Amino acid sequence: MHRERILKLLHNYECKYPEEQVYKKNIMDFIHMHSDCFERSCRIGHLTASSFLLNYEEDKALLMHHTKLGIWLQLGGHCDGDPDVAAVALKEAREESGIEDIDFISTDIYDVDMHLVPARKKDPSHYHYDIRFLLKVTNPNLPIKKNSESLDLRWFSHDVTKLPTQQRSVTRMFDKWTNLRSSITI
User: For the packed helices 18-33 and 4-12, what is the interaxial angle rounded to 10 degrees?
Assistant: First the structure.
């Protein structure tokens, strides 16, 4: 019962990139096979929720330089038992940016990704099945506040060549944003 909402969201999600079709299928299969898919205790992997957060003007997106992983990523985190992945994405965006005034541009899925997290200390390597949403800051001129999970937080324009990462997981979201901006201005 607690998995129905995410399965419906995924079912309705139209993948725009070939790799996402694979991720979507794998995520749905994983959810069907693991009733504990929202829990970190599911050792082979678990669902995570992320946001592609735009500033008030919608001309920049926020990335964080992740403390543990040492790479630039979107804001997000573990569901920790919460089956409402959209609510988790919003909560994580607020916590990791220090900005409370954030809301959804859409509650539909924006992107999906699946990636292997390397083993660390007590945690074996495992998969994150990441569901991503498009959000924006709803109040102009709000400062971002770095937290313990980030070495840095920075706003970036839509130009992927100027990003501090070329990880496809991140650049794909920027590509979608660029395409979305182009379709609106035409």
Answer: 160
Beta carbons within 8 Å of 72's beta carbon, 6+ residues apart: 63, 64, 65, 66, 163, 164, 165, 167, 170
Among 116, 111, 106, which Cα is nearest to 170's? 111
Percent of the chain with pLDDT over 70: 98
Whether residue 58 contacts residue 137, with contact meaning beta carbons closer than 8 Å, is answered with no
CA 16, 57, 109: angle at the middle one, nearest 5? 30
Residue spans of alpha helices (H) in 34-140: 85-97
3-state class of 156 per DSSP? strand
Q: How buried is 142 (Cβ within 10 angstroms: 0-12 exposed, 13-18 middle, 19+ buried)?
A: middle
Non-local (6+) Cβ contacts of 8 within 8 A are: none
Residue 11's contacts (CB-CB under 8 Å, 6 or more residues apart) are 28
pLDDT band of 65, cuts 50, 70, 90? very high
Return the H-helix or E-strand segment holding 107: strand 102-117
* Alpha-carbon distances of 26 from 20, 62, 89, 184, rounded to whole Å: 10, 28, 20, 32
